[in-house]
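Dear colleague,

Thank you for sharing your sequence with our group. We've completed the structure prediction you requested, and as agreed, I am returning the results in plain text so they can be pasted directly into your records. Please verify that the sequence below matches your submission; if there's any discrepancy, let me know and we will rerun it promptly.
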Amino acid sequence: MAIPPSPKSIFASCLSLAALGFLPLPAMAENWETEIFGRAQYDYTGSEGDQSGFAHDRGRIRTARLGLDLKRGGTKVRLEVARNPSGEAELTDAYVKQALGHSGWSVRAGQFKTRNSLDEQTSGRFTSFFERAAFTDAFAFDRRAGVQLESNGKRHSVYAGLFAGNINDTAFSGTHAAAFRYVFTPVLTETELLHLGVSLRWREADDQGFRYSQRPFSRDTAPILSTPRFAREDLFAGIEAATIRGPAWLAAEAGVMEAGHGPAGEAVFTGGYLEAGYVLGGHRTYEHSKFDRPKVYRPVTEGGPGALVLAVRADWLDMTDSPADGGRMDTIALAADWYATSHIHAGINLYRTEVDFGASPAGLAPDFAAYVLDGGRSEAVTGLGVRLQIDF
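Please find the predicted structure tokens below.
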């Protein structure tokens, strides 16, 4: 006999349906301020394992996106379409944001990312590394259809929303989420920042349950760590801290995920990173609770040398807790990124990922799965990534 949906699931679905139904209406009005934007990224990745036989050598278009913003008064509409890794078009952001008078609050309805993690909220155009922290991918921070109440203040920012699934999949298949983030910025000038934040996210799975996995740094490869599908729901809690002082910055995050509530019991996973960087010929910027486009003092279009971003990151992900032992990963990465202008740049990432495998080869890349079945318990992958990017 089918189990009826819970009241909270019905409520989240109704909110999301209302958001998607409302989305096209403002675009039908006249006298809107319009802006077209987009980006293109080409990535090359070369990497190999020390013992498993894993080797990867490939270049590809990482993403190509085109979007439209419509603004009038306190209303903003965004629609963005992206080419996914399979070469197909899909919706990324598709939402309406409406200011609630002069209260400083607004409501956002449609599809967008749940507001978790500084690294995840920073646009992939402006992150210092080609890949975000391992825990953000493993814990599946993603875009969902939903409704969010938010306030972007100079010192205090709050985001709270209810969500269904991704509208490129089956948005109302039974998976739901609720997310919250609070950010405090006691110091915020053009060249100085102190950012402190906390975030929470609860998710309810569909019939398949959640699996947690991660790749050896590059998203162009298959997982090196993975759990079976075991979690009926999960709860994430994370803390964030970042500072900018002139051309230098530091950022750090740590998060814990309690997953389970199914027949297999519960597991607690953790992850985080520490990052430091320096900009020669510019500085990092910050807006709306996340890092923004780097400032280039003398771009090549004005006869200057551009700006060089240098960064180092120590990253870790621990999914060893039973009953779903997914293994542990530690990564050291170096980045050098040359911005010819603030909209055109090319960079290189060097990384080494060391892992202790989990209890099962399920969900792993074929080379890693075969190595585990043959008795392998640990592996290290060394790699290089190159990126060319333009956005407008």
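Summary note from our side: The chain has four helices and 20 strands.

Kind regards,
the structure core
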